[in-house]
Design a protein that fits this description.
It contains nine helices and twelve strands. The chain is α/β, with parallel strands linked by helices. It has a single domain, classed as Rossmann fold. It binds adenosine-5'-diphosphate and magnesium ion. Magnesium ion binds next to helix 1.
């Protein structure tokens, strides 16, 4: 199912943070949300996730306004991996990932072997099966991010929102996580600050500047020298990679002038 965002606004107090964003993410698409620090990526994701009510505009999942869904119904469709996920300290990896099954259970639907299988598959997908009994507080930053992704996968959502999921990862794990995310059949929006990772793994990207969507399209269409200079303030050369054909951005380490 698609994600449709229509003329979305969100203000914190009197300050307009997200300003008139409209975008559609097609079923199964991986959509990258780009923009400098403070441009509103996390704020937009929080509103799309239903964690903040919009000041104006709306978000629909496959045509259903998220404002019409209970938190539980929304959590069965949409999973979120936040930028700075925290968890109770004295829990194991397995317990965190099992939390992903919460929206699927009620008093009348006990835990089953299917849930165990889903949790085991999620841990395996992020390469953490061997860490299942390790305590959350003893994990590295990168492992914590992979556990949060496993929790989201265990939720078995149709939609996935990720806020800079590669932040604490070394380059090998950044690529592994994004390759995994891009191959999932889920409709995904992922905030990223690495333009080259976005160009490689996203079907389309959108660029935020001061809370406004200033560009949206394929990485090839969006990631131009002109846009990078205008929005990020850095001079760059952009050319198709000889290896994979996606645009490759090379920063020239100079001001855009
Ligand atoms: N709850 C809030 N109250 C006041 N200002 C906020 C709040 N949340 C975000 N902001 C501001 O909104 C802007 C966008 O922040 P954010 O969405 O975190 O950007 P990004 O994720 O792109 O770095 C920043 O200037 C930030 O200070
Ligand atoms: Mg952010």
């Amino acid at each position: 199912m698609s994600i449709d965002v229509k003329d979305l606004h969100w203000s914190a107090g009197r300050r307009a943070i997200v300003q008139g964003v409209s975008l559609s993410v097609a079923e199964g698409e991986t959509f990258g949300l780009l923009g400098p620090n403070g441009s509103g990526k996390s704020s937009l994701l929080r509103v799309v996730a239903g964690l903040r009510p919009p000041t104006a505009g709306r978000v629909t999942l496959g045509g259903t306004d998220i404002a019409q869904l209970s938190p539980r119904a929304l959590a069965r469709r949409l999973a979120v991996v936040a930028q700075h996920a925290t968890t109770e300290t004295a829990v194991s990896v397995l317990e965190v990932v099992r939390l992903g099954r919460t929206p699927h259970h009620g008093i009348l639907s006990p835990w089953t072997a299917t849930d165990d299988a889903i949790v085991a598959a999620a841990l395996s997908e992020v390469g953490l099966s061997d860490h299942r009994d390790q305590l959350w507080q003893t994990l590295s930053g990168g492992e914590r991010q992979r556990v949060q992704l496993a929790r989201a996968l265990a939720q078995r959502p149709s939609h996935l929102l990720l806020d800079e999921p590669t932040n604490h990862l070394d380059i090998q794990h950044q690529i592994e996580i994004l390759r995994l995310v891009s191959r999932l059949a889920l409709t995904t929006v992922v905030a990223l600050h690495d333009l080259n990772l976005a160009a490689r793994f996203c079907n389309r990207v959108g660029v935020l500047q001061d809370g406004r969507l200033v560009a949206c399209g394929t990485p090839h269409e969006v990631l131009t020298q002109e846009l990078i200079a205008r929005v990020f303030g850095v001079a760059a050369e952009v050319a198709p990679s000889a290896h994979h054909g996606h645009p490759h951005v090379q920063f020239l380490m100079e001001d855009a002038g």
